[in-house]
Design goal:
alpha/beta, Udp-n-acetylmuramoylalanyl-d-glutamate--2,6- Diaminopimelate Ligase, Chain: A, domain 1, 2 domains, 6-stranded mixed sheet, 11 strands, 32% helix, globular
Length: 301
């Protein structure tokens, strides 16, 4: 399986080949050990980047990277013969990645902890799919985002075919051929396969030549620091009453600025396509591919 992605299939980063590549990885644990030692940043003990399900001591058959290990992604991984799923977001709907539904807030009878919730069919279906097919789910978020340059931003730039315009002093900023905010939003929607998650702030005719990429969740401070040097920010998600309203007021104040939000999952998908390329340098001979989770939203006609 060749590394590929619907979002991020353009020219990947030139990753150096691992110094351990000549030693065959036999188990999932072997692969995870290589990730931890070759990631390029110090591995932290306090991290979400751990095995979330499955037995890492099973033989490795193939690797799939994805922004989110949805049930469709897991089914495609099984069909492709892969048993290690590397995801950047939680598989079980919360940061804790607990494989059972949350108990809820408050107290239970006699002031004790809340009573356990009844079995949930969605949790059960996902757990069964993982167990029945011998899958191992590994989250790779903290350390992947810590790499420099940020592979998530580089991935979007590659998918949009913008690498030649990358700013030498900031890999998240790009100079692109002159366009309008409306035309740029349409190009992004098509190239990154955004369905209903696309939202745009600013005048449609605003001239755009400088773009900042802020995938994932964009804090207000990041938007404030980036916006003066660019015409538009392309981001994943923001708090509407923070960055979104700031950009709206900037547009009305004559700043000629725009904000294009593509959704958190879509915004990090191209970065996980880059991850598939990187993993291929760590474990030559092991099939590695990227499977996009896709935009969860859609719009009625």
């Amino acid at each position: 399986m060749a590394a590929s992605a619907a979002a991020g299939a353009a020219t990947p980063l030139a990753f150096p080949r691992s110094t351990t590549a000549s030693q065959a990885a036999r188990t999932v644990r072997d692969v995870l050990d290589r990730i931890r030692t070759q990631i390029g940043v110090d591995w932290q003990a306090d991290t979400v980047d751990t095995v979330k399900a499955g037995d890492p001591d099973v033989p490795i058959t193939g690797i799939v990277t994805t922004s989110l290990a949805t049930i469709p992604v897991l089914r495609q991984a099984v069909a492709a013969g892969a048993n290690l799923i590397v995801t950047t977001h939680p598989t079980f709907y919360a940061r804790s990645d607990a494989r059972t539904p949350p108990a809820g807030r408050g107290t239970g009878p006699a002031g004790g902890p809340p009573a356990p919730p009844p079995p949930d069919p969605v949790f059960a279906a996902k757990n069964d799919l993982i167990a029945r097919n011998g899958l191992v789910i590994f989250r790779l978020s903290d350390h992947w985002r810590a790499r420099r340059p940020d592979p998530r931003a580089v991935g979007i730039g590659a998918a949009m075919n913008w690498p030649s315009g990358q700013a030498p002093d900031d890999p998240a900023r790009y100079t692109i051929p002159a366009t309008t905010l409306d035309a740029l939003a349409r190009e992004i929607r098509t190239t990154l396969q955004v369905r209903g998650g696309l939202r745009v702030i600013g005048d449609a005719g605003t001239r755009i030549t400088r773009v900042a990429l802020l995938p994932g969740s964009t804090p207000m401070a990041a938007a404030l620091s980036m916006l003066p040097a660019v015409d538009a920010i392309v981001g994943g998600e923001v708090r509407e009453w923070e960055s979104a309203e700031y950009v709206r007021d900037a547009a009305h104040a004559g700043g000629g600025k725009g904000l294009i939000l593509i959704g958190r999952i879509v915004s990090e998908e191209a970065g996980m396509a880059q991850c598939a390329t990187w993993l291929g340098t760590l474990v030559p001979g092991i099939p590695v591919r990227h499977i996009a989770a896709g935009d969860p939203y859609w719009r009625p006609a």
